Model the fold of this input.
Amino acid sequence: MKIGRFAGVTDTGRRRMRNEDALVVRPPLFAVADGMGGARAGEIAARLAADALEDARADTAGEEGIAGLIEDANRRIWERSLADPATAGMGTTVTAALVDEQGARVTIGHVGDSRAYLFRGDVLAQLSTDHSLVAELVQSGVLTPEEAERHPQRSAITRALGTDAAVEVEVQTVTGELGDLFVLCSDGLSVMLGDDEIAAAIEDAGREPQAAGEALVRAANAHGGEDNITVVLFELVDGEPEPASEPAADEPAHEPAATSSEPAGDVRTHGAGAGGRLVSLAFIVAVLVLGLLGLYWGINR
Ligand code: CA
Done:
């Protein structure tokens, strides 16, 4: 097996002034990053994460390899935020997928709530677990999945890249099958569209990555486009994989298939984007305790 067609599409959406997402489409490595931070810090954090991944050595492999890459990205963002007070507290999600040399295994590493899905046969399965407040509350039974989808804090994340000297990366390896389509996306897609809608848009586009990516962005915008939307897709097909090569030094800067280009001016992002997105574990525990107290009170009165 080998990597077949692939595409990356990013769009500012309909509500934000700037696009603070970044993407990596450099087979066998693919990734999305969703930045957060005041002013333009989120954009810088996501860009630093993407750059760190693009600097990956050609022999990077396996779960340790991808965890190491993401840890290196974390270090770069953290060090930059210490050196540049304007970027203090910036962070980003990252979800990265690396296909092995035989095209048989796909290793996924992630931090935050950007997602990895696998579309196999007729089933779209979410591979990554959101590192988010609502996901934790669903896990502990405080919220139903339906309540989580409508929750006002649904984009609050519990883990981010660059906000601390160290980061815990969640990694997993999927054994690929012919025809597998992997989908990485920022929450600007997954908050706007349910899994059924994502699957339907990909199916309607004939599972062609570029057409599917554009269709998904259109659908997310049609549902409000409240946030930046980024989606990266790649498929596994029959054939002999090509040998990995070092990226050419003069290659132009990526974002090969962005549907919209950045506005030129120095537009400052306004509103929340930022600090509010990352919540601490202590906050989650407090919410849980309050929830349980409420439950107890409800039962006993
Ligand atoms: Ca986002």
Summary: The mean pLDDT is 88. The pocket of calcium ion is lined by residues 34, 186-188, 227-228 (CB under 6 Å). The CA atoms of residues 217 and 300 lie 48 Å apart.
